[in-house]
Design goal:
43% helix, alpha+beta, elongated
């Protein structure tokens, strides 16, 4: 499918969505040149109607939007760009032009933080130190946390049960990263079973 720039005098609306949490971040406009630049560089560039020029989001603030996926709507006159924001998106300082972070996306933020600690080789980080110990140790830790969760499930202490569930989930995310998978991969499997 090819985007139809002629419908709106050479501009198309572009919805920016956080690729990890699916939260809508902002709306901008692109002309053909802005789209080509965005596709080439992997960083979102708009056509600014107020500046009357191409404008790369974050060119002054450093809060770039790294492109993960570009989709065209059914009428071929609107784009949806899934991206990873470097920091806040809105010029007001808010995370999104539509408000603050959506809490339902926290697990994806946590997954990204775990990945960053591992990829950056963050010294002194528990996450990175566990990762350095190898797959066997990470898998063992997931097993230990699972057993502790089962034990707490048999008792009536809700606080301990929830804490063990959090520990299990955290260590599972480390193991997923080490195996080269993501929560989206697991979601895909669960969605395929939803029949």
């Amino acid at each position: 499918m090819k985007i139809d720039f002629e419908k709106n005098n050479g501009l198309v609306p572009v919805i920016i969505q956080d690729s990890r949490t699916q939260q809508v971040l902002m709306l901008g406009y692109m002309n053909e040149e802005a789209l080509e630049k965005t596709e080439k560089e992997g960083i979102v560039t708009f056509f600014s109607r107020s500046k009357n020029r191409l404008w790369t989001k974050g060119e002054e603030s450093g809060n770039f939007l790294t492109v993960k996926k570009i989709s065209i709507d059914c009428d071929q006159d609107t784009l949806l760009i899934q991206a990873v924001p470097k920091n806040t998106v809105c010029h007001t300082g808010s995370f999104s032009c539509f408000g603050e972070k959506d809490n339902k996306g926290f697990l994806y933020e946590l997954e990204a933080k775990i990945a960053d600690r591992i990829d950056s080789k963050t010294e002194g980080s528990y996450t990175y130190s566990l990762y350095q110990r190898g797959i066997n140790k990470m898998a063992q830790k997931v097993g230990e946390e699972a057993v502790e969760l089962v034990i707490e499930a048999k008792d009536n202490n809700d606080v301990l049960f929830k804490n063990e569930a959090a520990d299990l989930l955290y260590h599972f995310l480390i193991l997923l990263k080490a195996k080269g998978f993501s929560m989206q991969d697991i979601e895909g499997i669960l969605r395929s079973r939803d029949q």
